[in-house]
Amino acid sequence: MNTPGDVYLVILLPALLLVVMALVVILVEAFFPESFLGFPTRLATAGLALIGFLAAGVTAGANWGTPGLQVEDNSGMIILDHYTLFLTMIFCLGGVLTVLISIRYLEDTGAAVGEYYCLLLFATAGAYFMAAANHLIVVFLGLEVLSVAIYPLAGFLRRDRRSNEASLKYFLLGAFSSAFLLYGIALIYGATGLGRLQMAAAPGASGAVSGLARLMLALGPLRFDQIIGYVLTRGSYAPVFWAGVALLLVGFCFKAALSPFHMWTPDVYDGAPTPVTAYMSAVVKAAAFAPFFRFFLDVLGRRSGSPGSYEIYSHWAMIMMAVAILTMTWGNLAAVAEPSMKRMLAYSSVAHAGYITVALIAESSSALLFYLLVYTTMVIGSFACVSLLRRRSEGEALEISEWTGVGLRYPWFGAAMALFMFALAGFPPTAGFMGKFIVFRAALETGANAGHQNGYIVLVSIALINSFISIYYYLRVVIAMYRPAPADAEAVHLVRDRTAGAAILICVIGVILLGVYPQIAFGVLSTFRF
Amino acid sequence: MNIPWLSIILWLPLAAGLIALLLPRGTRAKGDMAALVAIIGAIITLALSVLVYIRFDNALSSYQFEENVNWLPSVGASYHLGVDGISLGLMLLTAFLAPLVLLYLANRSDSSGSIYFAILALETSLLGVLLSADLLLFYVFWEAMLIPMYFLISVWGGERRAYGSLKFILYMMVGSLLMLVGILWFYWWYHAHVGPFTFNLSDWILMNGTPGARIPHDVQLWMFGFFFISFAIKVPLFPFHSWLPDAQAEGPVAFNVMLVEVGAYAFIRFCLPLFPAASLTWAPAIMTLAVINVIYGAVMAIVQQDMKRLFAYAGMSHAGFIILGIFSLTQQGIEGSILYMINSGLTGAGLFFIADLLYRRRGSRAIRDFGGMAAAAPVFFFVFMVTALAAIGLPGLNGFTSEFLVLVGAIRANAVSPVFGYFAASGVVLSSIYMLWMFQRVMYGRRPAPLDGVADLQPDENTTLWPLIATFILIGVWSALVTQPMQPSVNATISAIDRGAGPTQTAPALDLLMPGAGMGAMTR
């Protein structure tokens, strides 16, 4: 893997697999509307999408042990390290689970199929670029690929008004926040890149350099390591730069659903088709945290090494602490009073974004990645359960009150849902506890090392209080499920769906295994330092 | 040969429960199959526990049958199991109660694989709490215990079970999260002052026994507080008790019986050796609460109309004695407490089984709905009488020895005033009032209605109750069976307190002669 071509291939392979499979899916849908290779097309496309996700995930896993893995392409815009690989595996796991939930769901809702899987694959490719980005433009491109794929997915049930509303809301606010992000990037470029731009534009200075290379040279100042250089030399006083960082923060907070930029979450999660909601709450959130973490760790974190970096870190850590506390408190308090299942889970996902932010503040990639993995299994599992319980009349049983007696009528289904609720509430021996434990522990450790421990202790204490509040609303679901059903209990029924059942089973195994033996994932994570 | 006995004992119930759960449902025969698997699993667990008891070396104070495997090495947690004199008896108790409950439920038509699974999962988590020698592992089991308990109340409970189960779990979680804070704090302290990250209990105890590394007194007081609240809620101790009557009254008999006193156990296992100086300082305050527990529980029990609530308050009164014995910080007191935990587990099981049998016969638990049963059901009468007398503490039955030891320990305590023992002794009288008065109203007196439905004990009911009666008598006449193995471990705990509290003892010890000073310490 010495030639540049090999390096490009290794770096891009997961994304290439996803994109190629997306194109195959859409072509199969177009040219074989009835059946493909003997399978009905709706199954064949799902199968192809599964293959795409699995192939990308396996590719990422296969690269894990490759020595000299931290390769960058010539421009250094994309970086392939353990962080990228692990996130890619999380994305692909999320993709596989989403496809498994979607097959029957799409059939029941009568939505067209092919482009759905195509969009899922594209979105995941975008997520991959966000994880691998070492450059703000790549972050933006990845984000847009992801978002543009999610907008139609959120509105996929065209005849459902709420789905349309979700899509429109997500699009308008998403475009708005993308603008924030882009403006932030522009300001950062303005601060860091002025000299370089003139150099690149000056005739003769770069000699026979091609146009593309000239562009690379011009965009160089947006690379994370270049920004570090700027921060180190002139970072202590540079209002334009810090204004750009602030706008960047707004953009990231929106995508990750952090308060006070989370307002879209309940409406969008509620209106979007449930499998898409599952995908959004797991993969999109993880993808939003990926560059967020890398940028703040690389550029503003203590590891950039200068004496001033401690001061910078402590400033932004303070801001992020406020964001984290606000996010989890707001999410939890709003969820307490929420009668609708999907909206409750939406607020719960806001609260969990707050816990993930704690890992961000702790600057611990292993805690962050472990939590994202745990959260993916818990949240997709619970949305999978939600997608299976339907009203007799039409649609899903989305009110928590409609779940009355479900656990007694469908013991296995009820047990799985109850397990996910306990996991989300953070009970051991489920993975939810281990995730929180590892994150909070990492925050305390960072606090001890950073020298101002009290802020971290307050942060973790508030996170613990929030975990306590969250028990109440997660248990409301469990209580409802095990309350004897009233006479009209037959109003809801469980859809028998083998593939979604398989997805739930995978999540159940994940939630238990990561809780009982977290070393299985945390071991590999804690052996490397990102 | 190195057989992991404790691991087998720990996980066998869960495995049996899973098999019982996975057996196909539907026909009656299949239901019996699930019960059979569950009961066999529980009985093998009991047999193995007895084997451990037999092979247990009574002369040692340290952990025996130890297993220590890395669990989460990067944070310093290990899968570390061990049994010593303090946990041995309670392990036997847990392993003994589970098959009894299963036997009791096996003939009920509404039993299914899922309740067997809940009971066996609860058994595993209780055993985990008793056997773990690693704080994180302990915490995981401590919390995991709540899930089967919650389901036992909320699925198989009485009419207000949603309320009872939610109240139960919220109370428990407040305590657990506070304990988690305490655990993390200690963990950090250990890392900062000794070096490595570890959750190993013995290492932590060792640190507080080392003069240089000892945690300062004021910090200990706070850390102790975090652990204390969690355990006090579980016990329950006076101001934290209000979940108990609701959970016990709404919970099914399986929950009532399996509510083993792990809270008090945790006091001996963790609070005393980890925070010796703080234990000494807090002892008078906690003894005050314990005395309130004894008297308040007994008085509340006297006025109860519902039998299960009465037994719940009786259990609370017993818990007061247990805590009294522990914080007397004497050999007799702590031994008596451990014995008391086992006895109150046994007699409590008997009483709640009887309450359920009465409910089965008349569909009510209100005392006024019963009366004059003695003539109609003589065997029932006898069993109930022996159980009630054992709970009161009649000499010759199990309750007496433990109550006596606790009171002797409390009165002979050096660290705290004997006043607490004198007050607590009134509980002996009060317990006779609530128990015998209830017994009289249920068994004698006027019949409220024709006693058509009241049958004597059935064969399957006999198989549950007579083993309990046998243990009452066995422990009553030969309590050394239980107290002998615990002596070295209790002795080691007490000397750990003496060592750990050494230098800080001078100033507080003067305060501690007066109970009022203890109250002062609480508000400080």
Beta-strand content bin of chain B: under 5%
The oligomeric state is heterodimer
Extended strand count of chain B: 2
Radius of gyration of chain A: 23 Å
Mean pLDDT of chain A: 85
Strand order of the largest sheet of chain B: 1-2
Q: Percent helix among the residues of chain A? A: over 70%
Strand order of the biggest β-sheet of chain A: 1-2
For the residues shown, what is the average pLDDT of chain B? 85
**SS content category of chain A:** mainly alpha
Instruction: Summarize the amount of helix of chain B as a percent range.
Output: over 70%
Q: Uncertain spans of chain A, ≥5 residues at pLDDT below 50?
A: none
Strand content of chain A: under 5%
Supply the number of helical segments of chain A: 21
Poorly predicted sequence stretches spanning 5 or more consecutive residues of chain B = 504-524
Structural summary, described in words:
The complex is a heterodimer of chains A (about 525) and B (about 525). Chain A has a two-stranded antiparallel ribbon with strand order 1-2. In chain A, strands 3-4 form a two-stranded antiparallel ribbon. Chain A has a two-stranded antiparallel ribbon with strand order 5-6. Chain A has helices at about 5-30, 40-60, 80-110, 115-130, 135-155, 160-190, 195-200, 210-220, 225-235, 240-255, 265-270, 275-300, 305-335, 340-360, 365-390, 405-410, 410-425, 430-450, 455-480, 500-515, 520-525; strands at about 35, 40, 70, 80, 390, 490-495. Chain A is an all-alpha fold and about 525 residues long. Chain A starts with a helix and ends with a helix. In chain A, α11 (about 265-270) packs across α14 (about 340-360), α12 runs parallel beside α14 and α13 packs antiparallel against α14. Chain A is globular, with a radius of gyration of 23 Å. Chain A is built from 21 helices and 6 strands. In chain B, about 75% of the residues lie in helices and about 5% in strands. By secondary structure, chain B is mainly α. Chain B has helices at about 5-20, 30-55, 85-105, 115-130, 135-145, 145-155, 160-195, 200-210, 215-235, 245-250, 255, 260-275, 275-305, 305-325, 330-360, 375, 380-390, 400-410, 420-445, 460-475, 480-500, 505-510, 515-524, and strands at about 65-70, 75-85. The longest helix of chain B is centred in the middle third of the chain and has 33 residues, at about 160-195. At the A-B interface, α17, α18, α19 and α21 of A face β1, α5, α6 and α7 of B.
